[in-house]
Amino acid sequence: MTAKSVSNMRVKILSALSDPIRLDLLVYLSGGERCVCEILPAFQRSQSTISKHLNILYEADILERRVDGKRTIYCIKEPMVLEIIRMVDCMALKKISQLAEAGKILEKTLGNNQ
Amino acid sequence: MTAKSVSNMRVKILSALSDPIRLDLLVYLSGGERCVCEILPAFQRSQSTISKHLNILYEADILERRVDGKRTIYCIKEPMVLEIIRMVDCMALKKISQLAEAGKILEKTLGNNQ
DNA sequence: CACATTCATCGTCTTAGAGCGATATGTTTA
DNA sequence: TAAACATATCGCTCTAAGACGATGAATGTG
């Protein structure tokens, strides 16, 4: 039962991370806690859309939230998530540089053949 | 341009990881390289479904593949992905144990109130 | 060469999720 | 208490993705 719970939670966390806006939100919040009315103008999306994304991150236990008067303040609950993003970026960079390298080689080869 | 490429690749990698079958495939392949005909009987899905999932992991640069005769052999290209899964599992476990703890406290409280 | 094996890809169906406007809920302020 | 503000939620549309059977493209075998 626990094994299945962990499996479900694992997918929930990774699904929450697999969206460009939500990744940007996390990077934005890595600078410290922010209320929604601060977050909104930093993202070119409707209020309902941002609210939904924040809630998905909250449900995945990645963000923490706290109500202060009429504001709701979000912050990163699990800093490990930033480490995960860092590792994924590392993988992405590796891939991009491989592609760039391949591009150069191809260019060179084509150049020689002409 | 590169920033956007990294961002796209990042989402691609995380999307590839956000599926239960694909995570199981990675755990399965962490035991070493396997051809598709070995993988298939270990998963209760159609051949086309497994093939597609393997391809998604391949496209995300997570798996490597090699053709040997009429077999295609897959293996993990980027071991860092296992480390990422490990960290996500850690987060998931933390959450599960929090829930379990909350359950106990609730139980105790209800018990005391009666 | 005909056939079996192995795997990828295509076409189709169905479901999940992103996006947004409109509305609901709770809080401060006038 | 009415109005303004901050945010969540609902209802809807549209697109992306999962699943699978059928087909296609290789490779090996009799």
The CATH class of the largest domain in chain A, by name, is: Mainly Alpha
Number of helices of chain A: 5
CATH topology of the largest domain in chain A: Arc Repressor Mutant, subunit A
- How much strand of chain A? 5-15%
The whole-number mean of residue pLDDT values of chain A reads 92
- Kindly provide the radius of gyration of chain A, computed on alpha-carbon positions and rounded to a whole number of angstroms: 19 Å
Briefly note the structural class of the backbone of chain A. Answer: alpha+beta
Q: How many structural domains are formed by the residues of chain A?
A: 2
| CATH level-4 homologous superfamily of the largest domain in chain A | Winged helix-like DNA-binding domain superfamily/Winged helix DNA-binding domain
Q: Which second-level CATH architecture of the largest domain in chain A applies?
A: Orthogonal Bundle
Strand order of the largest sheet of chain A: 1-3-2
Fold and architecture overview:
Two copies of one chain form a homodimer. Chain A has 114 residues and is of the alpha+beta class. Chain A folds into two domains: 1-78, Arc Repressor Mutant, subunit A (Orthogonal Bundle), CATH 1.10.10; 79-114. Helix content of chain A is 68%, strand content 12%. Chain A has five helices and three strands, in the order H-H-E-H-H-E-E-H. The first copy, chain A, has helices at 2-17, 20-29, 36-39, 47-59, 80-113, and strands at residues 34-35, 63-68, 71-76. Chain A has a three-stranded antiparallel sheet with strand order 1-3-2. In chain A, strand 2 and strand 3 (71-76) form a beta hairpin. The longest helix of chain A is centred in the C-terminal third of the chain and has 34 residues, at 80-113. Chain A starts with a helix and ends with a helix. The model of chain A has no long low-confidence stretch (mean pLDDT 92). Chains A and B meet through helix 1 and helix 5 of A and helix 1 and helix 5 of B. The first copy, chain A, binds a DNA duplex (30 and 30 nucleotides) through residues 15, 19, 21, 35-37, 45-49, 51-55, 67, 69-72.
